[in-house]
Amino acid sequence: MHAWRVLTITLLIALVAACASREKTPSRPDRDGAPGKRIHASDVKDAVPQPEPKARYGNGPTYEVWGKTYTVMPSAAGYRERGVASWYGTKFHGRPTSSGEPYDLYKATAAHRSLPLPTYAEVTNLDNGRKVIVKVNDRGPFHSDRIIDLSYGAALRLGYVDQGTARVEVRAITFDGRRADRKLPDDTYLQAGAFQSKDSAKALEKALKNGRVRSVDVDRTKGLYKVFIGPFDRLVELEDTAARVVELGYERPHTVRR
């Protein structure tokens, strides 16, 4: 009996020591991932496009990573590209980005190999239609099969955090060196939703109006009840309204002509 008690006590001590050792071992700093605090997609707000001077850092004209030289575009005007997006998270949270801004994984930001820093861009998930506006303030991804690396928050908005990558379209938002409130065509609207049920469309219309979104109406088009906001004659008003819709917890509406 004495020998069994000694053996049992010895095993218990070893088990406690092993647990203590695991608890004291920090997570590997070279691994990236999602934060322990999970948030909702609606908590991540669109970046607000505005004219900004080029960042002091990260604008080349060239730079080298892993022995390969990259060239920074002189302007983002007209940039539109489709490809694969990835995302980055906890490994870089709080660290300086290439432009010098601290990386915040909960904000809608992104890394791109060649766009000027900063650049504002609309990113669309081609598989589910979700959109997010990001501020490109970092460099990457340095994998030839990917075109953009979104923050955890932006990837959450697009619905591909769990998958890791998604097929996207990236469209730069530029201001031609002037203020963002450029004139829009008279028939420019935002479409906030499309439903087979009129009641569902009316429910969204009511919710948006209760959320202080103006000029909302429902129209039956091609067999669907669509919720439109507008018209808008200035870009800044359209962007402010789209941001308000997102703040209310809905997907970002897309621009249409009626």
What this model shows, in words?
The chain is an alpha+beta fold and 258 residues long. The protein folds into two domains: 41-173, RlpA-like domain (Barwin-like endoglucanases); 183-257, Alpha-Beta Plaits (2-Layer Sandwich). 22% of the residues lie in helices and 31% in strands. It is built from four helices and twelve strands; from the N terminus they run αβββββββαββαββαβ. It has helices spanning 2-24, 152-158, 198-210, 235-247, and strands at 62-65, 68-71, 80-88, 109-111, 119-125, 131-138, 148-151, 166-173, 183-195, 216-221, 224-234, 254-257. The strands form three sheets. It has a six-stranded mixed β-barrel. Strand 1 and strand 2 form a beta hairpin. Mean pLDDT is 83; it is low at 1-29.
